[in-house]
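Q: Could you write out the predicted structure for this multi-component system? I'm mainly interested in how the pieces pack against one another.
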Amino acid sequence: MRALLIAALLLASPALAVLPDEMLPDPAQEARAREISKELRCVVCQNQSIDDSDAPLAKDLRVVVREQISMGRTNPEIIAYVSDRYGDFVLLRPPVKPSTWLLWAGPFILLLAGAGGLIAWRRPRSSSSPVAPLDAPLSAEEAKAVAALGDPKS
Amino acid sequence: MKRLLFLLPILAFVGLFAVFGVGLTHDPKLLPSQLIDRPLPEFELPGIAEAPGGGPGFASASIRGEPALLNVFASWCAACPQEHPVLTRIAEEGVPVYGLAWKDVPADSRGWLEKWGNPYVKVAADEAGRTAIDLGVTGVPETFIVDKRGRVRYKQIGPISPEQWTDTLKPLLAQLRAEA
């Protein structure tokens, strides 16, 4: 029974948003359409690609992508066609350009800053420590302070 | 110096808190239009038969000569009736308002216009939604302000409130009218 359940879980595949009537007859072209659709964000349900989304606008855009493929456009041309209308926002992989440099370099800058901080932290303290070793005899000043506390036995 | 290092994480926290706090005030649903200062994409769409005031539809080239509004609506749109009185007022003030029924069955658009009244000088049906994609429409209602030369100058996402009309759109239209 358990094996059956595990098998069912392993064999289950996510439901496809792409409907059979949208698909292109040529499997190679359809594969390209899927590949492009996965790069494009659905503008209605923003954290899904148009390949994942059931929104009507996502369906329209999938149809546009397939039409463009049938017209012989290349993948970058088709992605440019969509981003020309909806902006860089629809690209799930943001382009590298001056306004996104911080976005792309940010994690590495943080990593370097963290590593720098860690190295500075772990470096042994300089030996000229102001604290006297524990077994040193009391200085005159310290002896006076102890005497001022009084004899605990009295 | 050591004390400053101790403060560093707190400063970093405050900085991030401020950045994300400001980020929360932005609505991610509001996409900036790619069409600003670009000509209206070309289209020629059929009208909605027998709608009150509904004529033969219109083409993008006909929105020219004087600043106008292009309003995208649909009978299935929940916020459109809320915007309707404002559009009616804008039309009454003499601004041409063009209507684009997005992904709507023409009979439903007609019913909607009969129910609420038709504020538009012309109405066209974009049943397939292709013109809306060229316009970069993400939802309804959306409104474009088109200048004399047929270029898009402003895009309003969501219903126009009376305040937005008097404070933003109306002054912009006056400015566009004054342009050569």
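A: Regarding packing and overall arrangement: Chain A touches chain B through 13 residues (CB under 8 Å).
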